[in-house]
Amino acid sequence: MDPDRSPSNGTSDTRTIHGHARPMGDTIMLANAFQNDFLPMVLIVDDKPTNLDVAISHLANEAVDVRAALSGPEALELASELEPDLILLDVMMPGMTGFEVCRHLKNNPNLAHIPVIFLSAMGEDTHKERGKVVGCVDYIEKPFSRAVLSEKVWTHLKLA
Hints:
Elements: E1 14-17, E2 20-23, E3 28-29, E4 41-45, H1 49-59, E5 65-69, H2 72-82, E6 86-90, H3 98-107, E7 116-120, H4 125-134, E8 138-141, H5 146-159
Parallel strand pairs: 4-5, 4-6, 6-7, 7-8
Antiparallel strand pairs: 1-2, 3-5
């Protein structure tokens, strides 16, 4: 984790996801209603707000600073800007798949060290193998439990 990481400036724009106003801009603060430079940062990437809400609610009681992106390009921008400690990445997204996002991350010397865990409803072995080929460290099938997500997040944060 980068001790010099500075908190987001925030914006006055908001996005409503499932009835909750969420700050919008470079980051969407969706969990842990505060930012803390001393907590590990987890970037969650999914094009479906419902899926983001599930992952975020599962991490709500964990000691992590959660950020979110709704697309592959936004994820790459946020990863470059924030250098999160871990990325939870959906595989099937329009425009740029999670496989493509992971490949871009692993080809960037400044971001290649960030562990990527895929979150996907596609649990076939071929998809898991493809994930390993592009550089993911783990693969969690949707739907997933709070316990499974927490265990895998903390395992890879400790290894990072």
